[in-house]
Amino acid sequence: MKIASWNVNSLNVRLPHLEQWLRAFGPDVVGLQETKLEDHRFPDAALAGLGYRSVFSGQKTYNGVAILAREEPRDVLVGVPGFEHEHRRAISATVGDLRIVNLYVVNGQDIGTEKYELKLQWLAAVRDWLEEEARRHPSLVVLGDFNVAPDERDVHDPAVWNDQHILTSAPERAALRDLLATGLHDGYRLLHGDGGVFSWWDYRQAAFRRDLGLRIDLTLVSEALRPQVAAAGIDREPRTWERPSDHAPAWIELAR
DNA sequence: ATGGTTGCCCCGCAA
């Protein structure tokens, strides 16, 4: 069973890419981020034609999240309980016996800005909520664009992406560690100790061609699922296509 | 990374 996370940076622009990738990769569950679509414009009929049911929470221009699954998603929850906010950044659903939480973490812009403070507050609220969610749902998958590179292996140049830089600052990494400490494991890291495997490359500076990336798109699993993680990776292929998203899909395979 | 690019909607803002 393949589970993936992909920041599509506008589903309006990227629907053909998503369709092509769903056909090629054949995931069972996908969390999308930055759909940038209001709900009445979500292409659920097109995706149903490919065999995927969709649940979504979007807004115009910014943010927006969705879960696609071959099985009907149940018990859909929009947002982060205890942290009301206009940003559409979280959607959760049960697929089969798995609880799926899909997150588009606040980017944070720069250290010291209001957006940075929002990022840390948002991550703390998510951590508190996930602690309960893990109790309710032992088989828990938390995936998304975390906008934090977990450690030095996850950045192309640790001298640039240091503890004074957005996406790699010490408070951001601490917030991610706190979230993992609720009992979650980075699916990719369970199987791979290597560095230099990235999921996001800036559109500028020909960053993808030069492989100047970061691994900020993660698929986390609860302790109960840990023994089932059979494979994990990042599919760079859609990043090579014409007019791509700046992110590539991050995936895990569960043996079940 | 002082740049630079993309997507959006209204031409600056977010990433």
From TrEMBL:
Keywords: Hydrolase, Magnesium, Manganese, Metal-binding. The record marks 247 as: Interaction with DNA substrate. The record marks 147 as: Transition state stabilizer. GO terms for biological process: DNA repair. GO terms for molecular function: DNA binding; double-stranded DNA 3'-5' DNA exonuclease activity; endonuclease activity; metal ion binding. Probably binds two magnesium or manganese ions per subunit. Its cofactor is Mg(2+); Mn(2+). The keyword Manganese applies. InterPro entries: AP_endonuc_1, AP_endonuclease_F1_BS, Endo/exonu/phosph_ase_sf, Endo/exonuclease/phosphatase, ExoIII-like. Coiled coil: none annotated. The active site is at 104, 145 (proton donor/acceptor), 247 (proton acceptor). The record marks 217 as: Important for catalytic activity. This is Exodeoxyribonuclease III.
